Amino acid sequence: MAEKTLPQIFKYVDQNVDSYKKLLKEAVAIPSVSCDAKYRDDCVRMVEWTQEKLKEVGARTELRDVGYQTIEGKEIKLPPVLVGVLGNDPKKNTICLYGHLDVQPALKSDGWETEPFELVERDGKLYGRGSTDDKGPVLGWLHAINAYKGIGEELPVNLKFVFECMEESGSEGLDALLIEKLKPEGFFNDVDYVCISDNYWLGTTKPCITYGLRGISYYFLEIECAKMDLHSGVYGGTVHEAMTDLIYLMNELVDKNGKILVTGMYDSVAPLTEAEKRLYTNIDFDTEAYRKSIAATRLAHNGDKEQILMHRWRYPSLSLHGIEGAAFQPGAKTVIPGKVIGKFSVRIVPNQEPEEVEKLVFDFINKKWAARGSPNKMRITAQSGRAWTENPDHPHYQAAARATRLIYHTEPDMSREGGSIPVTITLQEASGRNVLLLPMGAGDDMAHSQNEKINVRNYIEGIKLFAAYFYEVSKLAK
Ligand SMILES: NCC(=O)N[C@@H](Cc1c[nH]cn1)C(=O)O
Ligand SMILES: [Zn+2]
Ligand SMILES: [Zn+2]
């Protein structure tokens, strides 16, 4: 590949900004919300739409069936997984790219300034659900491939794709597809590296490359006191209320400083070594900017940088997410909910196994429930995914760092991330190869939140970064 290829690609990308925005607008307009069965057809539509785009860049694609999920006793078909292959030159390195096409729910009434499923450009930012998590990055890969084609240059690597539409809901069916089908079929045989772009820079100016993720153990805690909702003027004072029991249990889980109260939760957390402790000192992270960007009054751990990073990356945290069945709509509704489902999760960390964490939480809740002596019905279920870490001293990381320096003219931080991408460790095990997370978006993109956005700069420079990453990986020894 000629010396001037990358500069030509960068120029091509700059000339095609409008078409990249247009495609992201189309993708965001498909409300592929995976956690709500009523959007299941949109999830399928999103997978099929992406399949067409993958075909347009020349990939061989197939939609793999991953069966059904059970929601409230009903069997619902899971969206298919989009699997693709582009190139099979044995002289070239092969990268397996993973991304997800589903999104978290969003309603304008949640507090969005504009319609969440309509991509809107304002002040150099593209607002819309999925813009940064993860539709922008997935399209970024396709645009980077297209840019090579656009300047008439052969792609310097072979690519394999795994794009799913259930990541935000525990990646149901994906592990089985990878381990029981794709691996035995030889899909990973020629894979040399795995790359995922589904996380963010730590701050807003400095790029990073990510070598660790927390896992997640998500709980549904259901309490039922009656077969229907009740008038509190008629039944209040005469029944043991489900909501009262639920609030009691949820309040037992974590203290006001965020310390998890579930017995044994910290026992198997990997011990902090002196060498690891030193790593946090050099990370470029402005806790005050982080605090201000969310308008929080005060951060935990007195806002100490090292402690904040450690509690995002290497210690478990427990969050209370919501209560299904509670009267959350505006207005003074005087109902006693008949059944409520409390939702909370534990972000789990290296050395903690999901089964072990689930047992600790179940035992703790059962003990508290027995002590409460409530006559109501209680049920707790969980879905979990493991934590992941990788060796950042690998040539793969050096290649990604060279690509990043070329685009952003600065040394990227080697970071870990507090969020979870359950399939990462499965891809690491199935391929036996080095896995790397190459984020496109910035730390203030507000994924999962109101007014999710991606900066135009991150989207466009991210496309160039992906193209440069292909080039750098192509130079690694076979
Ligand atoms: N971008 C990754 C991401 O947001 N992952 C989710 C995964 C999830 C959601 N529910 C269960 N797992 C996350 O919340 O980290
Ligand atoms: Zn994501
Ligand atoms: Zn997400």
From TrEMBL:
Gene3D superfamilies cross-referenced by the UniProt entry: 3.30.70.360, Zn peptidases
Which residues does the record give as Mn(2+) 2 binding sites? H100, D133, D198
In the record, biological process GO terms are:
proteolysis
Keyword terms: Hydrolase, Manganese, Metal-binding, Metalloprotease, Protease
The record lists Mn(2+) 1 as bound by D133, E168, H448
Q: Which InterPro entries match?
A: ArgE/DapE_CS, CNDP/DUG1, Cyt/Met_Dipeptidase, Peptidase_M20, Peptidase_M20_dimer
- Tell me the ranges covered by the Peptidase M20 dimerisation domain, including all copies: 212-368
Indicate the residues that form the catalytic site.
D102, E167 (proton acceptor)
Q: Which GO terms describe its molecular function?
A: metal ion binding; metallodipeptidase activity
> Magnesium: is it a keyword of this entry?
no
Binding site residues for substrate: D198, H231, T334, R347, S420, H448
Q: Which cofactor does it need?
A: Mn(2+)
Cofactor note from UniProt?
A: Binds 2 manganese ions per subunit.
| Marked site positions, Important for catalytic activity | H231
PROSITE patterns xrefs: ARGE_DAPE_CPG2_2
PANTHER family on file: BETA-ALA-HIS DIPEPTIDASE, CARNOSINE DIPEPTIDASE 2, ISOFORM A
| Assigned protein family | Belongs to the peptidase M20A family.
Name of this chain's protein:
Cytosolic non-specific dipeptidase
Q: Which organism is it from?
A: Trichoplusia ni
